Amino acid sequence: GFGExxxxxxxxxxxVPDGIDPFDAAPLTCAGVTTYKAIKVAGTRSSDLVAVFGxxxxxxxxxxxxxxxxxxxxxxxxxxxxxALARELGASFTVNAAKEDPAxxxxxxxxxxxxxxxxxxxxxxxQAFGSLRRGGTLVFVALPADNxxxxxxxxxxxxxxxKRRFRGKVL
Length: 171
Fold this sequence. Notes:
Blueprint: H1 22-25, H2 31-42, E1 49-53, H3 59-68, E2 72-77, H4 80-88, E3 93-96, H5 102-108, E4 112-117, H6 122-130, E5 132-140, H7 153-158, E6 165-166, E7 169-170
Parallel strand pairs: 1-2, 1-4, 2-3, 4-5
Antiparallel strand pairs: 6-7
């Protein structure tokens, strides 16, 4: 909240350590936890190519976590300003989806080991799927209002994309 004081259950709060500005700590409680879990569910390891679709409130955190996990990050967005931020945060590659097909651009890099879908467009979910290499992992985080996406059956079955995951466990 915006108040100086609040009442909450102790098990749902954490103390911000001395020396850390609460303004800097605030994103860790929602965007930070959400994207940390996405990177963990994806199984990002050293040298993996991780495609982050959407460099917004969640995406900027996902880029940093993927880098900390040792991944090389491809950031995808429609805004050159957000892509510049992605490079500052450690993205090795950037793709402006308004100017080129991100799935094709990422496939030219060998395909993503993991794709994290953070943009609220069903089209970006489809592009994230198309960016995967054989056996890659797709993690859905955003919730598009349309509530649907197209999934190409032949590419899914014949190319082994993506790994089928539910709550972080291979089915």
